[in-house]
Amino acid sequence: MSGELYLTDSEKMAVARAEAEKGAAEGGIPIGAALFAADGTLLGAGRNRRVQDDDAAMHAETNAFHNAGRQRSYRDTVMVTTLSPCWYCSGLVRQFGIGRVVVGDDQSFLGGQEWLAENGVEVTVLNDPGLIAMMGEFIHTHPRLWNEDIGED
């Protein structure tokens, strides 16, 4: 999968969605992400693995970033995520200068995407009905796990 070319935001989001679906099938939180080069080459994909790995830091964006390996620069990369990035993942985007973020759903949760946009990151919101439904169902079915993931008591 890594190294393949994805030209449209929809094609890129399909990679992140597949990761979210894998995470759900594993008993985890259904959030997926993928990091792409400017030309659409997939650098790395990942999913929220907090439950599976018993690792509070393994959000979808951080997993995708980790799986992409070292890059000389991140300025021209695109982070695609099924859910608006939390403050932790928004910090990763800013720290490494990722130039663009594509969000599949900001209705279920609104993280730091407005802060990213205010600080020069290009943010595109798709609000895909299928992703909104998937996250809404998860939040309804697993409220304690969801609150743990977003740092709520």
TrEMBL record:
<dbReference type="GO" id="GO:0046872">
    <property type="term" value="F:metal ion binding"/>
</dbReference>
<dbReference type="GO" id="GO:0055086">
    <property type="term" value="P:nucleobase-containing small molecule metabolic process"/>
</dbReference>
<dbReference type="InterPro" id="IPR016193">
    <property type="entry name" value="Cytidine_deaminase-like"/>
</dbReference>
<comment type="pathway">
    <text>Pyrimidine metabolism.</text>
</comment>
<comment type="subunit">
    <text>Homodimer.</text>
</comment>
<dbReference type="GO" id="GO:0008835">
    <property type="term" value="F:diaminohydroxyphosphoribosylaminopyrimidine deaminase activity"/>
</dbReference>
<keyword id="KW-0862">Zinc</keyword>
<keyword id="KW-0479">Metal-binding</keyword>
<dbReference type="InterPro" id="IPR002125">
    <property type="entry name" value="CMP_dCMP_dom"/>
</dbReference>
<keyword id="KW-0378">Hydrolase</keyword>
<dbReference type="GO" id="GO:0072527">
    <property type="term" value="P:pyrimidine-containing compound metabolic process"/>
</dbReference>
<dbReference type="GO" id="GO:0005737">
    <property type="term" value="C:cytoplasm"/>
</dbReference>
<keyword id="KW-0963">Cytoplasm</keyword>
<dbReference type="Pfam" id="PF00383">
    <property type="entry name" value="dCMP_cyt_deam_1"/>
</dbReference>
<protein>
    <submittedName>
        <fullName>Nucleoside deaminase</fullName>
    </submittedName>
</protein>
<feature type="domain" description="CMP/dCMP-type deaminase">
    <location>
        <begin position="7"/>
        <end position="123"/>
    </location>
</feature>
